[in-house]
Amino acid sequence: MVKFPPKPPPIHHNPLTTAGKLIKQASAGIDTFAQEVDETLTDLGQDIDSTLAPSEEKTGSALAGVTNQATLAWQLDHLIDDLLHLEVDHLPLQGIIDGKPCDCIAKAAREARRHAIETVPIAARQGVDAKIFTEIARWANHLIDIGTLDAVRSGKYDQEYLEQSGTASNFRKQLEAMLSQLRKSHRQECETCPSILNLKTFLDERRAQRAGPTDSEAGPPA
């Protein structure tokens, strides 16, 4: 009779099987952690939005989250740029670029008129006197009339262009003062804006809410 070598002792735990289980467990733990991070970030974003972002009802703006104050500041900034271009470029040069007449005064004035007219209702919503914006619009209309290519070629308004540069400067300084006051007011309001001071506490509270009440919080059994 042929004698075979003794069989090796049975392997009760296959190393590959054990490793596979460990990998699955680690993967499940990572998935759980990732889900918790996603939920926490979502909750955090919702809290920040509801705390810091003004609602459409409060602002009255057509775009939710954009305040009338921010819109007015935007308009003022554009108008100041329009006036500055007229003040230091087009009017002092009397509509002449590279020795040739152009209609740049009229075109720049159209931009100023458009922004001024747009600003009237925006200022009204903020309770700001809109008189200066209607004055700028009327003044811009005059510049459109005297800033055409034919008017520049005629040389008839050369002295007036220089004088109107001073008018543009006066308007610009008034708007800059208005914009400065608007920004100062905004900074003062932000000093009292609510904020999340302790992120760790916030995250702990969120985890506790998802976990549900503890035994002590749940009260005695019925």
Count up the helices.
9
The largest pleated sheet is described as: 2 strands, antiparallel
Rough outline = elongated
Task: Using the CA coordinates, give the radius of gyration.
Answer: 35 Å
- State the helical fraction: over 70%
By DSSP, the count of extended strands is 2
Q: Strands of the biggest beta sheet: in what spatial order? A: 1-2
Counting helices, strands and paired strands, the structural category is mainly alpha
**Overall mean pLDDT score?**
75
As for the number of domains, it is 2
The string of secondary-structure elements, in order, is HHHEEHHHHHH
Note the gap between the termini. 76 Å
Strand content: under 5%
The residue ranges in which pLDDT falls below 50 over 5 or more consecutive positions are 47-63, 190-197
What are the key terms here?
9 helices; 72% helix; 222 residues; mainly alpha; single chain
What does this structure look like?
The protein has 222 residues and is mostly helical. The protein folds into two domains: 32 residues; 126 residues. It is built from nine helices and two strands; from the N terminus they run αααββαααααα. A hairpin with a 2-residue loop joins β1 and β2. The relative contact order is 0.11. About 11% of the residues have low confidence.
Brief rundown of the structure:
The chain has helices at residues 15-52, 56-59, 68-90, 104-125, 131-146, 149-154, 158-190, 199-211, 215-218; strands at residues 96-97, 100-101. It has 222 residues and is mainly α. The chain has two domains: 19-50; 65-190.
